[in-house]
Amino acid sequence: MFNTFTQERPDWRRHHHRRGPWGPFPPFEMFGGQRGGGGPRARRGDVRAAALALLRERPMHGYEMIQELEERTGGRWRPSAGSIYPTLQLLEDEGLVAAEEIDGKRRFTLTADGIAEAEKRGDARPPWEQVGEAANAPAGRLRDGIAQLAVAVMQVVQAGSEDQIKRTLDILNDARRRIYTVLGEDIERDETGEA
């Protein structure tokens, strides 16, 4: 099997399904993030709740909602058009939103039923705040650290000399051993009962 760090790099450009030395699965996707964005993915229900909460504030079109959610989460959650627009269509089918065409864009407004549905949440925290909290939790910070490390490693793979690739591999191997040491310390503490 090809080892990215120690052997010649193949010409992956001739394979349509591959996007780089990582094959079809860049490191960002292995840890639940998205290429170029990272961060936790929101559940489908969150998109629905977010759309209702945003429309409770004012009428918007779909792309405006995407931008608003990205801004409110500091870039951690940018729902795709493929999740926003079907959700808005479903809300329209349920009679919770009405759409009108303005300057070639569909702008959505809550109906009376939509306002009642949005108010059922009461003073619950909006979905975009929950996404931010998940990202700031220890697991979210660790995931961000992994994504940042993956970016640095990819740069070495793509532009590094043979010596830089070897030294980077040594660093990664050392980091892996140290992480297992940390886990081992916790196991030893649990077995001895000492903190």
Would you kindly provide a written description of the structure presented here, covering whatever features stand out?
- This protein has two domains: 68 residues, no CATH class; 94 residues, Winged helix-like DNA-binding domain superfamily/Winged helix DNA-binding domain (Arc Repressor Mutant, subunit A, Orthogonal Bundle).
- The N terminus is likely disordered.
- The chain is mainly α.
- The protein has eight helices and three strands; from the N terminus they run H-H-E-H-H-E-E-H-H-H-H.
- A hairpin with a 2-residue loop joins strand 2 and strand 3.
- It has a three-stranded antiparallel sheet.
- Helix 2 packs across helix 4, helix 2 crosses helix 5 and helix 3 packs across helix 4.
Topology:
Layout (H helix, E strand, L loop, with lengths): L26 H4 L13 H14 L2 E2 H11 L8 H13 L3 E6 L2 E6 L1 H8 L7 H10 L1 H22 L2 H31 L3
Antiparallel strand pairs: 1-3, 2-3
Helix pairs in contact: 2-4, 2-5, 3-4
Quick structural overview:
This protein has 195 residues and is mostly helical. Helices cover 58% and strands 7% of the residues. It has eight helices and three strands; from the N terminus they run ααβααββαααα.
| CATH structural architecture of the largest domain | Orthogonal Bundle
Computed CA radius of gyration, to the nearest angstrom: 23 Å
Level of helix content? 55-70%
Query: What do we call the CATH homologous superfamily of the largest domain?
Result: Winged helix-like DNA-binding domain superfamily/Winged helix DNA-binding domain
The number of helical elements comes to: 8
- Report how far the terminal alpha carbons are from each other: 43 Å
**Which residues form runs of ≥5 with pLDDT under 50?**
1-19, 21-40
- The first-level CATH class name of the largest domain: Mainly Alpha
Number of E-state strands: 3
The largest sheet is:
3 strands, antiparallel
Indicate the CATH topology of the largest domain. Answer: Arc Repressor Mutant, subunit A
